[in-house]
Amino acid sequence: MAVAATKGFVRMTGETELLTIAQELAEVSRLVEDDDVTGALGRFAERVLRTVPGCAAATVTVTGARAEQPEVLAACATPGAAAPTRDMLTGDGPLVEALRYREPRRVDDTRTDQRWPGFSARLAEQGYRSVLVLPVPTRRRGGSAVLTVFSDEPHRFDETVHDVVLLLTVHAGVVFDNAQLFHDSRALVDQLKVALETRQTIGQAQGLLMRHFGCDAQGGFGLLKGASQNTNTKLRDVAETLVSAHEQETFESALAKFRLDATAGAATS
């Protein structure tokens, strides 16, 4: 029955169907607002579940702190099926080997396969009979990733289905890298924004000190540094407090808090 279903899928997947799948994969590869790696891969795993014939569950996992304990970034399953969890996938097994060696692995029947008895037994208990694991081509730093599909039928993932999943792994790599790039870029933008805001605040505080103590720019910055060192307070926090105090007309109190008195001002002249 599995073979017939696969052949039916092949007949169905003509030029038009392949174009539709390609368009949908391109769409799911795009990032939505505030998307991150986990969110993007979650949407992708759901698409895999709907695309691969006989697929009852799909996961995207990456190398964890220890090779035998992969981190599950995305997991989904058909209604009534248990989504594979980290506990089901850890230890010696095809998934860990695929992550370690970046090579495909396949289990045709979890009830009879003897290569990874512990792994097979855990999946068989959850009703999964066949598994296909393919490395995801990604530029992920410091580790590897794999796409895994599960079926409740034995011998479900033949060569034809293997090729379909192989196509999906390429898009999984695109999703992974795009999401990671997006996340890194957003983080960099946020850091730059904070740096610019901090620089502006420090400049304002420096100007206030220059005017109050009648010193030049170098002297004003020296006062800020001295206040930071004297009170073990970050330079940014000192500047923010001084600017806020000036706005609230409590500038003199803030100067006293940071030990910025006439003596300190005279030292910068």
Automatic annotation (TrEMBL):
Entries under Pfam families matching the protein: ANTAR, GAF_2
Domain ANTAR: 182-243
One Gene Ontology MF term: kinase activity
Entry keywords, A to Z: Kinase, Transcription, Transcription regulation, Transferase
Keyword RNA-binding: no
Name of this protein: Response regulator with putative antiterminator output domain
Organism in which the protein naturally occurs: Saccharomonospora marina XMU15
